[in-house]
């Protein structure tokens, strides 16, 4: 029998994409027990048709707090509201293929991974060259820091085991939380794996602020080096 899981979706101005994503999730044979949508201060509240087969909960920040804050709130809600053993993180913009969810669940069920990350390497499709370069460089740096081969450090499509969430304290407020999660997981000895996924890029404007987020990424790396 497939493993039980919940989904956390941080969402910022994804009013067109989010209903499509939920519709795709509703078509899954093995559906999540709960879906937590963290509205990170979108310009207007989300309104979409009800999905009677999905248990959807929306938590709204009145102002934009950053993806890291949204993810941290989602993890908090997950821990405080059930005892489901696995949590899947997905972006709201439709770039994470719902059809890959069974692959995550199957691998987690058959192998003792604590953190499974989508791997888009070799499947870059129409992804802009700047994002390809950024992911390649950051993955090499995170691999060096952790001593493990991290092939896609920036992919937010991830399956987390409950014990990992219970024992790792995240502090980052922005996109850097994804790097922080990998580094802290590796540092504490949790087993990290990857799932090949197709790259979906449909031209949405990224919420990443390239210069400021690059600076913060460098700050994380420097803090990790100094803490050794």
Automatic annotation (TrEMBL):
Domain of life: Bacteria
GO terms of molecular function: transferase activity
KW Transferase (keyword) present: yes
One Pfam family it belongs to: Glycos_transf_2
Keywords: Transferase
Residue ranges annotated for the Glycosyltransferase 2-like domain, each copy included: 7-166
Statement: the UniProt record of this protein carries the keyword Transferase: yes
Protein name: Glycosyl transferase family 2
Species this chain originates from: Caldithrix abyssi DSM 13497
């Amino acid at each position: 029998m497939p493993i039980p899981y919940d989904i956390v979706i941080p969402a910022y101005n994804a009013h067109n994409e989010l209903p499509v994503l939920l519709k795709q999730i509703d078509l899954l044979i093995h559906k999540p027990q709960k879906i937590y949508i963290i509205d990170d201060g979108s310009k207007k509240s989300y309104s979409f048709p009800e999905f009677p087969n999905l248990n959807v909960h929306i938590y709204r920040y009145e102002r934009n707090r950053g993806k890291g804050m949204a993810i941290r709130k989602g993890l908090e809600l997950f821990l405080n509201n059930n005892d489901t053993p696995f949590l899947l993180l997905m972006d709201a913009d439709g770039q994470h293929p719902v059809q890959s969810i069974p692959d995550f669940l199957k691998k987690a069920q058959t192998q003792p991974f604590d953190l499974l990350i989508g791997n888009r390497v070799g499947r870059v499709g129409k992804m802009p060259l700047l994002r390809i370069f950024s992911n390649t460089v950051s993955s090499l740096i995170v691999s060096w820091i952790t001593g493990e081969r991290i092939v896609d450090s920036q992919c937010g499509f991830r399956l987390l085991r409950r014990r990992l969430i219970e024992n790792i304290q995240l502090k980052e407020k922005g996109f850097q939380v994804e790097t922080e999660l990998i580094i802290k997981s590796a540092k504490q000895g949790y087993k990290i794996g990857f799932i090949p996924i197709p790259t979906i890029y449909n031209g949405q404007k990224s919420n990443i602020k390239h210069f400021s987020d690059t600076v913060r990424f460098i700050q994380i790396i420097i803090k990790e080096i100094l803490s050794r």
